[in-house]
Amino acid sequence: MSDETKRGESTVKSYIAVWAALLVLTAVTVTTASLDLGKIAIIVVLAIAAVKSTLVVLYFMHLRHEKRIVIKILIPIAIALLAIFIGLTYSDIMNR
Q1: Which domain range does residue 33 map to?
Q2: Please, what's the largest Cα pairwise distance for the chain?
Q3: 74 and 56 within one domain
């Protein structure tokens, strides 16, 4: 086992697996957009986007190996920003 693997660093295999998962999730998103799911479609597409962004943040931005205190600080900030963005988007839609 190499020194990088012992420290918990991501390997090339894990990058390829995450990349493949992102491709599959992108295909699922495109397929979902063509289906008539009604009002639930936006929830499904946002859930898939959340999973994809989580994979990118954890593996490609290397937060998977970050100290837990950093994660505990970043998660509430990210959720608050997401709530603000969604709230502003829906308030704009409602006022048109």
Answers
A1: 1-65
A2: 59
A3: no
The number of beta carbons lying within 10 Å of the beta carbon of residue 60 is 14
pLDDT level of residue 10 (50, 70, 90 thresholds): low
| Out of 19-23, 25-29, 43-47, 68-72, least confident range | 68-72
Residue 86: which pLDDT band, with cuts at 50, 70 and 90? confident
| One domain, residues 5 and 47 | yes
Q: Clarify whether residues 57 and 82 are in a common domain.
A: no
What local confidence, expressed as pLDDT, does residue 2 receive? 53
C-alpha 77/C-alpha 57 separation (Å) is 14
Confidence (pTM): 0.66
Number of domains in the chain: 2
Burial of 58 (0-12, 13-18, 19+ CB in 10 A): middle
Q: How many CB atoms lie within 10 A of CB 41?
A: 13
Tokens standing for 34? 């063509």
